[in-house]
């Protein structure tokens, strides 16, 4: 029970003063109406409108009329029974308040990261899109925790407050029913902010994590009535899916960071506010208005961010004098009218139910609610964000501010994905998937991604040179250096994924390259610098992204597990030369850059479980042959257990990598990888964007299996025992007796010596072991693809 002084128990005495309205007169931000076709791909659409919308910092997107996702929050069990916490906002003190007598200690809220390995804490930051403030910051300024409400209770309270505040009476003293316009509410809101006459306190259910009410969108794991509802659970505009869409570099973040990769809900009432702020790491944000009354936004483009900060410091000197990082607290509102007078570009958006609001990198935004409503927001990072994100972490370092993400991990993840796309496009005779073509568009000389890697390389070169250390102090960073714990500079909290400086005197403490000399006072001989990649290697990566074939082969070999021929090996000497200067170790969180040839994986195709078929046998695999292909008699085109015809194609059913609750068809193919021999490819037939390549049929299908497992884990699906192992040769059809017979018939002269020697020498038991299978194909008149099987 709350005390009688709580706003929930108070009579609403404050009243609307229309004659003193302070509505800002500023221009509206642009509004976009995507067609059904444009609406299919959120990232492509954002990329399309960016040149027009980014100069405003904010825009409104109105979906096609057919976009009507059901809101799960309206289920009776949620609406009437589940409570959520609120905060009390004193609206009249958001701009005009006295500084505190004693400067509060700097405390930062840490976001919870929900990893597949469990939960952990990482770093501080603001929530997406319409952030309010951290609980600690609110308490500093008297914004305390409020009541817990159900949605049903909150709606009733919000309606009572608004009706009372905007109450009108006729000449006879009777209450007149009417509805204030958005302009009426906006004028009164800024009057309260700028020229308050009464205390106005409201509740806001803000920054509600997924574990409270859950998402307003249904997820893939939740059952909906009617197959037409599937479009909403799988759509990229469903905010549960947006951050990890192909092309968003946030997809390379392993942990589910609440508020960044996992959406937050906002349940508002009239005058509840979100104060001026930018997104963590200057990310994009997307906000969807599920239901209720409008939300009014104000945006300032990233190009005017410094001007806004300057204007606010000028007009609120006492508050900033007390707390220089005031804007990080998200507790200060400021009139767009004053910003306009100070020459700051500010724009307005009115967001209605069913509409999206998009904010751009480093675009300050703020706003308030016109009544009871519910919205949801999350971050997203198209490739063009990388330059903004780099600027953000450099700024955080100067401000000694903790980060929420490892920017370098995302940057390298994007580079790996681009290398994979470029290699697949070069190896395929087909046009290429939409996803691969998109990655290619960011590469080449002066490509967005190429420039981001080049800028990071130049930054590292300059910092290493500035230290003036001998090359003997350079060491390879261990593969798992920051896999199990956060590594950040002891001085400025800069993320140390790419490089770190240390000393023997403090084995668990590290510095960034800018603060290496501040770590300790030991002799330089005890210092060392850990590098994930040498400068030569990063230069090679830049060239690979530019399209240099030799460098692309080097990086494709690491990303895809492709091996080099002896001729290719000689071309890597410039990269190896610097690598050999460093001590032994690994170079990346997932990818080793050792350039020696690995053991021939094709020799290990059949099984890794005691010589028996792995559990794909238990799936009742039935492989349908599509095209037998033709033989290539090079050494790599067979192994002891199978022959790999060029352009071979087959179809098989397996768990869908996007939705493991259903089985879908996959197309397995053998492509010509040139000097590397066969390149194995598996594609989800219903989605050409889901492609897997490897020089090993086994590893190719293991990649599919791992994706199924990852998706199952992320969706909270129960694990399936039959997904522990898979047999790649079986999934391709190379263990199906009828397919094997057809392929063998292509080589009547036994030119593929390795295969035939093993077959002839093997005992009958070995033959049974390697060739038996539950696979089945349809045969017509004793022939397969026109080849006589007799």
TrEMBL record:
PROSITE patterns: FYRC, FYRN, JMJC, JMJN. It comes from the Eukaryota. Residues 92-141 are annotated as: Disordered. Its main location: nucleus. Keywords: Iron, Nucleus, Oxidoreductase. Residues 125-135 have a biased composition (Low complexity). Residues 231-397 form the JmjC domain. InterPro entries: FYrich_C, FYrich_N, JmjC_dom, JmjN, Znf_C5HC2. Residues 29-70 form the JmjN domain. It is found in: Nucleus. Residues 100-124 have a biased composition (Basic residues). This is Lysine-specific demethylase JMJ18 isoform X2. It comes from Camelina sativa. The gene is LOC104757472.
């Amino acid at each position: 029970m709350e005390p009688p002084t709580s706003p929930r128990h108070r009579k609403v005495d404050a009243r609307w003063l229309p004659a003193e309205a302070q509505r800002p007169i500023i221009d509206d931000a642009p509004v976009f109406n995507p067609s059904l076709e444009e609406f299919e791909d959120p990232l492509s659409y954002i990329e399309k409108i960016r040149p027009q919308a980014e100069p405003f910092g904010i825009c409104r997107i109105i979906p096609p009329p057919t976009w009507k996702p059901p809101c799960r929050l309206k289920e009776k069990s949620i609406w009437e029974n589940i409570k959520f916490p609120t905060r009390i906002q004193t609206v009249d003190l958001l701009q005009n308040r006295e500084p505190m007598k004693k400067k509060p200690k700097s405390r930062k809220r840490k976001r919870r990261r929900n990893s597949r390995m469990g939960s952990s804490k990482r770093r501080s930051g603001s929530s997406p899109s319409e952030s309010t403030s951290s609980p600690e910051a609110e308490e500093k300024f008297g914004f305390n925790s409020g009541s817990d409400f159900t949605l049903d209770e909150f709606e009733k309270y919000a309606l009572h407050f608004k009706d009372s505040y905007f109450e009108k009476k006729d000449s006879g003293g009777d209450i007149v029913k009417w509805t204030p316009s958005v302009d009426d509410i906006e004028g009164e809101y800024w009057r309260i902010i700028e020229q308050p006459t009464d205390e106005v306190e409201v509740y806001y259910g803000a920054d509600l994590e997924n574990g409270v009410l859950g998402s307003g969108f249904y997820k893939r794991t939740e059952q909906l009535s009617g197959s037409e509802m599937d479009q909403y659970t799988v759509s990229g505009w469903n905010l549960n899916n947006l951050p990890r869409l192909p092309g968003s570099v946030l997809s390379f973040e392993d942990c589910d960071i609440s508020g960044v990769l996992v959406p937050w809900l906002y349940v508002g009432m009239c005058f509840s506010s979100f104060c001026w702020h930018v997104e963590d790491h200057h990310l994009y944000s997307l906000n969807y208005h599920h239901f209720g009354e409008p939300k009014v936004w104000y945006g300032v483009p990233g190009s005017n961010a410094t001007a806004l900060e300057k204007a606010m410091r000028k007009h609120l000197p006492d508050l900033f004098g007390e707390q220089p990082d005031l804007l990080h607290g998200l507790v200060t509102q400021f009139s767009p009218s004053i910003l306009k007078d100070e020459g700051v570009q500010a724009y307005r958006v009115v967001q209605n139910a069913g509409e999206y609001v998009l904010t751009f990198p480093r675009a300050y935004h703020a706003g308030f609610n016109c009544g009871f409503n519910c919205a949801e927001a999350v971050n997203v990072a198209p490739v063009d964000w990388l330059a903004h994100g780099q600027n953000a972490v450099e700024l955080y370092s100067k401000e000694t501010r903790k980060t929420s993400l490892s920017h370098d991990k995302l940057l390298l993840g994007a580079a790996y994905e681009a290398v994979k796309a470029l290699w697949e496009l070069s190896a395929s005779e087909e046009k290429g998937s939409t996803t691969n073509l998109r990655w290619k568009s960011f590469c080449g000389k002066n490509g967005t991604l190429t420039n981001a890697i080049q800028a990071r390389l130049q930054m590292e070169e300059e910092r290493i040179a500035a230290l003036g250390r001998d090359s003997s102090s350079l060491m390879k960073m261990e593969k798992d250096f920051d896999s199990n714990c956060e590594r950040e500079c002891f001085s400025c909290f800069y993320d140390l994924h790419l490089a770190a400086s240390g000393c023997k005197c403090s084995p668990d403490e590290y510095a960034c390259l800018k603060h290496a000399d501040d770590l300790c006072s030991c002799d330089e001989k005890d210092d060392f610098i850990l590098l994930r990649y040498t400068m030569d290697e990063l230069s090679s990566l830049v060239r690979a992204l530019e399209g240099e074939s030799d460098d692309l082969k080097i990086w494709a070999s690491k990303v895809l597990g492709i091996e080099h021929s002896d001729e290719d090996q000689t071309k890597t000497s410039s990269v190896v030369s610097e690598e050999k200067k460093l001590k032994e170790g690994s170079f990346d969180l997932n990818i080793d850059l050792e350039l020696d040839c690995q053991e021939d994986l094709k020799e290990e195709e059949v099984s890794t479980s005691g010589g028996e078929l792995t559990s794909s046998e238990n799936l009742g695999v039935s492989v349908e042959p599509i095209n037998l292909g033709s033989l290539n008699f090079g050494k790599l085109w067979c192994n002891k257990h199978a022959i790999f015809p060029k352009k071979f194609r087959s179809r098989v059913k397996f768990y869908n990598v996007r939705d493991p609750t259903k089985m879908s068809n996959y197309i397995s193919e053998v492509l010509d990888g040139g000097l590397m021999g066969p390149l194995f490819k598996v594609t989800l037939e219903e989605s050409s964007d889901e492609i897997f390549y490897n020089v090993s049929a086994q590893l190719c299908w293991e990649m599919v299996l791992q994706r199924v497992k990852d998706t199952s884990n992320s969706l909270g699906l129960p694990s399936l025992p039959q997904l522990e192992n898979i047999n790649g040769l079986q999934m391709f059809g190379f263990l199906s007796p009828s397919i094997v017979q057809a392929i063998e018939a292509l080589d009547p002269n036994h030119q593929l010596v390795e295969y035939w020697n093993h077959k002839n020498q093997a005992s009958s038991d070995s033959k049974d072991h390697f060739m038996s299978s539950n696979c089945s194909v349809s045969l017509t008149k004793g022939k397969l693809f026109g080849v006589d099987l007799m």
